[in-house]
Structures are given as structure tokens and as C-alpha cells.
Amino acid sequence: xxxxxxxxxxxxxxxxxxxxxxxxxxxxxxxxxxxxxxxxxxxxxxxxxxxxxxxxxxxxxxxxxxxxxxxxxxxxxxxxxxxxxxxxxxxxxxxxxxxxxxxxxxxxxxxxxxxxxxxxxxxxxxxxxxxxxxxxxxxxxxxxxxxxxxxxxxxxxxxxxxxxxxxxxxxxxxxxxxxxxxxxxxxxxxxxxxxxxxxxxxxxxxxxxxxxxxxxxxxxxxxxxx
Length: 226
Hints:
The chain is mostly helical.
């Protein structure tokens, strides 16, 4: 399944880069999302596969912090790219005549840059706060990878401040993009309902189907993590 994930996303990137007809904002975001998905999966699965092969579930402190950093980083990028793609679909369906003007290369690049900076800062903030906590000499993390929330639960010192920071960041960088996606699709649905023909409605909705599937898988998985 790991190889299928990596190869599938590599094929998407290759197809988009080799076909000039796909050099549009939507596919630009999609290729970036595929790259981030490869990195996101590679943060945890290879180590888990090694653990299964060697029958060892040990990870070093430095390795755990590194895994937490990149997991938070790529997870944040995933979240932001899904939001950008929702905004792209909103502009394409609700403002089709101004699509090329609004979704210009400069805006697309700026959105990617801002998402990168915010994700890096968020990951650094969380990982720099973890070493300030005290832990037992040996920890047993009840998970298949190092996750910030699980790590904080095992701390011996007061975790009130870091919990407040993480909750605040989750609301701003987690619920914020999700609210943007929901708002974009509320406008999209409203615009589609105004299309007179059934064929036009189907064509407009079909352009959003793959993105909706990706959003459902991403947020469904995130909500399912204990």
C-alpha cells in the first residue's frame, strides 16, 4: 500500500508536468498535494515497516521529535493545499469570466509560499515546546508513530501552557482552512443550483468530485486518529 501511494502520486506529478494542457492552477495545486502526500506518508510508514520487520518498536528521542516535526509540517501543508483547491473551484464555478485574472501564477505562488511559512512555524513551535517538558526515562507511546498529543499526555510536568498553544493553533490552522472549504462549497452549491440545465449542473459538480473525495479522506482520517 505504501508503494501504491508513492507510485500513484508520482504518476500524477509526472502526468501534470508532461502535459502542457494541465498547467493550470487546479493541477498546480494537485501536483503539490501529491508531492506532500508522498512526504507525509514517508514520515511514518517506512519506520513502521522496519519495526514490523525487526519486531522492534523502539525509536530514539531525536527520531521521535523529528517524526513529530515532519508529520505536523506535511499535515499542515495537506490542509492548506486542500483549502487552495477549494478556493480554485469556487472561483472557477462562481466567477468563471474572471478565473484567469484572479487565479494568476503570482497568486498561486504566493498562496503556496504563505502556506509553507505557516506550516514551518507551526511545526517549529510545537517541537520546540516539547523539550521543555519532563518525561520518564522510558516512554511507551500508545500509537504506531510519534504524535504530539500522545507525547504530551505522557509528560510529568505541567502541560497547561502547551495544551493551550496547541488548541489555539488547531483552531487557527485546522478549523480555519476547514471553514474556508465549507464556505467555498456553500457558494459552489448555491451557484450550481442556479444552473438551469441538468447537464450543466452535472458538469460543474463533476469538476469538484475528486477534490471532495480527497477532503473527505483527509479529514475523515484526521478525525479517526485517537
